[in-house]
Design brief:
Blueprint (H helix, E strand, L loop, with lengths): L1 H25 L5 H8 L10 H12 L3 H15 L3 H17 L6 H10 L18 H20 L17 H27 L10 H30 L6 H31 L15 H32 L7 H6 L1 H32 L13 H8 L2 H8 L52
Helix pairs in contact: 1-2, 2-3, 2-4, 4-5, 4-6, 5-7, 7-8, 8-9, 8-10, 9-10, 10-11
GO biological process, one term: clathrin coat assembly
Keywords: Coated pit, Cytoplasmic vesicle, Endocytosis, Golgi apparatus, Membrane
Protein name: ENTH domain-containing protein
């Protein structure tokens, strides 16, 4: 009984404020507060678009009315206990965010009002007392308010299709553009999550005003997801060129996109079944398989492990090259222990290198040469080589042409190389196997006998 009395009093209060605003408008006392009250009437009717044009007309006449609207919106949204008034207030804010240009003072004034706690969309303290299904409507209003709170922060996002052909030509500009995309993509993912959180339940899902609001919310999610899908493709195409931190952030975005794609596909299927938008309006949701995530993660881990190993070896080499003399006196006074440690490590390394060199020399001495010459006879290796060759080869070797000053230019002499007899070369063994000549039939089609 007490709850029913509170519902009646809430409805009476809201209708009275709307009637007073209408009377004031007829009497010529039309200001921004009256327009906001009339636009948020507690009736089961969709939002009237004519109030958007009236407010924008006031904005064009008086630039100072942006802050006044923020204060009027806060009074209307904070004091109401009717879900219809709260919902239409949020729809009014949503439509103004979409209609006004980015360079207008509307968004900065909203940020100023939120920073000074004149507007509190998240956390939202709204509680409905005007219906029997108050919990369903309260949850929907709070989710919608949180969505608009993040939309104010993401107001500078340009919902454009960025392809790889649109990237700048210079490498620094490309890295700057990719960094901007990596900053924007998590915001788009958060907006998509807030859109899915606005899914009404219970009696709220069957209400006509809530359904008309969901159509605008879902259509905005189409632009968010289309922009996200285009930009994530560009980031993945240039993933190898990114630094480590940006590469890790991009991989986290890609992993979250794989999980979010399943939830978004289910949300869009539910929206189609509810008839919020036409089936042709919904974008295609790209499903990302888990094996693709694992393959990309393994590839990035391997790539950065190679980079870290190479960088660690270079750092070790540079640290070994640094001598204690390169350290200043002030640093030596502040860190005397570190200098002694550095000198000790360098001395150890020098000793190890000397020991390895000694071991190598000892091994060379132990092994010795493959051919030992007779040093006692004092015979040189040139004499041994000439003695091993036959006289015919020595004579033919002497016929090789060498230029000298007495001859006119270069001349070539053709000579036959010497043929060593089998007895002169101990490594030459003639093959005594007989050779058989087998005749094959002639075939003009296959002249090579194949």
């Amino acid at each position: 009984m007490q709850r029913r009395i509170r519902q009646v009093l809430c409805s009476l209060k809201e209708h009275t404020s709307v009637n007073c605003a209408k009377i004031a408008t007829i009497g010529g006392f039309c200001d921004l507060d009256h327009v906001v009250i009339k636009a948020t009437s507690p009736e089961d009717l969709p939002f009237n678009e004519k109030y958007i044009h009236e407010i924008m007309k006031i904005f064009s006449i008086s630039p100072t009315s942006y802050r006044e609207f923020a204060l009027c919106f806060n009074r209307r949204f904070r004091k109401t206990e009717c879900w219809r008034v709260a919902l239409k207030s949020l729809v009014l804010l949503h439509r103004l965010l979409r209609s006004l240009p980015e360079d207008s003072p509307f968004r900065p004034e909203l940020l100023w009002a939120r920073s000074n706690r004149y507007i509190s969309l998240y956390p939202c303290d709204f509680q409905d007392f005007s219906s029997s299904s108050a919990e369903d409507y309260t949850d929907f209003i709070r989710s919608y308010a949180r969505l608009l709170d993040e939309a104010i922060d993401c107001s500078a996002i340009e919902f454009t299709e960025t392809d790889e052909d649109d990237m700048p030509d210079s490498f620094p500009d490309q890295m700057k553009e990719l960094g901007r995309m990596i900053e924007v993509l998590p915001q788009l993912q958060s907006l998509i999550d807030r859109v899915m959180d606005c899914r009404p339940t219970g009696a709220a899902a069957k209400n006509f005003v809530v359904q008309s609001t969901m159509k605008n919310i879902i259509r905005d999610s189409f632009m968010c997801y289309t922009t996200f899908r285009k930009q994530i493709v560009v980031v993945l195409d240039n993933l190898i060129q990114l630094p480590y931190r940006s590469c890790a952030e991009a991989f986290d975005i890609y992993k979250k996109a794989a999980i979010q794609a399943d939830d978004l596909s289910e949300f869009y299927n539910w929206s189609k079944s509810m008839g919020f938008c036409g089936a042709y309006e919904f974008p295609f949701v790209d499903r990302i398989p888990l094996i693709q995530i694992r393959a990309l993660g393994a590839f990035l881990n391997g790539m950065w492990q190679l980079t870290e190993s190479s960088s660690s070896t270079m750092s070790q080499l540079t640290s070994n090259v640094q001598s204690p003399s390169s350290i200043s006196d002030d640093e030596a006074d502040e860190h005397p222990i570190k200098i002694d440690e550095i000198s000790a490590t360098t001395n150890k390394q020098v000793k190890l290198e000397e020991e390895t060199m000694k071991k190598a020399l000892q091994k060379d001495k132990e092994i010795g040469p493959l051919i030992q010459l007779d040093v006692e006879n004092n015979v040189s290796w040139e004499a041994l080589l000439e003695a091993s060759l036959p006289s015919s080869c020595i004579d033919s070797r002497r016929n090789v042409f060498f230029p000298n000053d007495q001859m006119n230019g270069w001349q070539m002499q053709v000579y036959t190389p010497c043929v060593l007899p089998s007895s002169a070369n101990p490594f030459l063994h003639t093959n005594s196997m007989p050779i058989y000549h087998v005749p094959f039939p002639a075939n003009p089609t296959y002249p090579w006998g194949l």
